[in-house]
Automatic annotation (TrEMBL):
Species this protein is from: Curtobacterium citreum
Region of interest called Disordered, as start-end residue ranges on this chain: 1-42
Matches recorded under Gene3D superfamilies: Winged helix-like DNA-binding domain superfamily/Winged helix DNA-binding domain
Domain HTH marR-type intervals: 40-172
InterPro entries, per the entry: HTH_MarR-typ, MarR/SlyA-like, WH-like_DNA-bd_sf, WH_DNA-bd_sf
Pfam family for this entry, one: MarR
Protein name: MarR family transcriptional regulator
C-alpha cells in the first residue's frame, strides 16, 4: 500500500508574486509604524496614507466639534448642501430614520442644528446647521482647503492632467469595488 507523504509546495510564478506582495505589504506597514520614509516610487502606500490622514483629520474635526462620526457626516451634508429633511439625511448617511433621529437629537442638544417645520408641508421637519457650528467647522477645515489649493496652484497643466487622470481612475476603482 503506497504511503502518501505531503509534498512541499512548488513555487510557481503566482506563488512568488503573492509572496512578494505580502512582503511588500509588510514592509510598507513597518515603514508607516516606525516612520521610515517610503520609497520614492511607492504610490500605493501614499494613496493609503492619504486615506489614513483623511480619517485622522475627520476624527480631529469630530473631537473639536464634540460630535460622533454620524453627527459629523450629517453636519458636513448640511453645511455643504444646505437644509435637509431627516429622511433625506438618513438616506445620505445610509442609516435608518430612527438612527437619524438619535443623531439629530445629539446634534440639537449640542447646539449644532435646529429642526423646524417644513414651510410647505407641516408634517415634515427641516434640519439646518447652526451658523456658529458651521463657522467653527469652516475655521477648522480652512487650513486644509487652502493647503490643497496651494498644492494645485503650484502644478503646471501637465501635472494637473496627470494627477486628475490618476484620481479619476482611483475613484473608478472605488466605485467598482462597491458594485
Amino acid at each position: 500500500m503506497p504511503h502518501d507523504e505531503p509534498t512541499a509546495p512548488t513555487d510557481g510564478p503566482r506563488d512568488l508574486d503573492a509572496r512578494r506582495d505580502r512582503d511588500d505589504r509588510r514592509d510598507r506597514e513597518a515603514a508607516r509604524r516606525d516612520g521610515r520614509p517610503l520609497p520614492d516610487d511607492d504610490i500605493r502606500a501614499r494613496v493609503q496614507q492619504v486615506g489614513v490622514q483623511q480619517q485622522r483629520f475627520e476624527r480631529h474635526l469630530a473631537r473639536a466639534l464634540d460630535v460622533d462620526a454620524a453627527g459629523l457626516e450629517a453636519m458636513d451634508h448640511l453645511i455643504s448642501h444646505g437644509q435637509s429633511t431627516p429622511t433625506e439625511l438618513a438616506r445620505r448617511l445610509e442609516i435608518s430614520t430612527a438612527a437619524m433621529t438619535l443623531v439629530l437629537n445629539r446634534l440639537e442638544s449640542a447646539g449644532h442644528v435646529t429642526r423646524e417645520r417644513h414651510p410647505s408641508d407641516g408634517r415634515k421637519l427641516v434640519v439646518t446647521a447652526a451658523e456658529r457650528s458651521s463657522d467653527r467647522a469652516y475655521d477648522l477645515v480652512l487650513p486644509l482647503i487652502e493647503g490643497i489649493e496651494d498644492v494645485v496652484a503650484g502644478m503646471d497643466a501637465t501635472e494637473r492632467a496627470t494627477v486628475q487622470a490618476f484620481l479619476d481612475r482611483l475613484i473608478g476603482i472605488y466605485d467598482d469595488a462597491m458594485d
